[in-house]
Amino acid sequence: MRYESVAVFCGSKPGNDPLYELHAKEVGELIGRNKMVLVYGGGKAGLMGAVADAAIENGAKVIGVIPEILLSWEQQHQGLTEMNVVADMHIRKKIMYDKCDAAIILPGGNGTLDELFELVTWNSLKIHDKKIALLNSGGFYDHLIAHLDKMQQQGFLYGDWRQRIEVYDSPQSIFSGWA
């Protein structure tokens, strides 16, 4: 399936493993080379900045969506095609979901998990049906994957979670079916 726009959710910090930043740059590069639009959180720091910079360097249109409260924390990126400054995190997520055809989840912290689980919940409730790719860089999400399996085994999920989230180990494997 060909996607026109991809939301990327990831850390505003780089994390401790250089693989996370390498994968973020590869995702941005692949978005640009495949002439997709990147929709992301609007920051210039951490993995967010790495994915945006790589997308820009490879010719992508890049749309940032940042809440007012995070302007100073995430160091607003100045080189984007479009920047949306919004009132709060809820509006940010809604706009990002509305502007994308699919989403990629890279390593990140609490905010990244919040975004992942809201996407999955909205898919479960049929509010939307966006493709969700979880990039398990260096096994970063192994424990989360095991927990999702346990939630399913214990009868807390409606259907197989792997029907809603596809797990990948490399950026190239995500894009092999997307471009």
Helix and strand layout, with pairings?
Elements: E1 5-9, H1 18-33, E2 37-40, H2 46-57, E3 61-67, E4 82-86, H3 89-99, E5 102-105, H4 110-124, E6 131-135, H5 142-153, E7 166-168, H6 171-175
Parallel strand pairs: 1-2, 1-5, 2-3, 3-4, 5-6, 6-7
Helix pairs in contact: 1-2
Description:
The protein is of the alpha/beta class. It has one domain: Rossmann fold (3-Layer(aba) Sandwich). 40% of the residues lie in helices and 18% in strands. It contains 6 helices and 7 strands; from the N terminus they run βαβαββαβαβαβα. Helix 2 links the parallel strand 2 and strand 3. The longest helix is centred in the first third of the chain and has 16 residues. The termini are close together. The model has no long low-confidence stretch (mean pLDDT 94).
Q: Give the termini distance in whole angstroms.
A: 7 Å
Major beta-sheet overview: 7 strands, parallel
How many strands appear in the DSSP assignment? 7
| Beta-strand residue percentage | 15-25%
Helix content: 25-40%
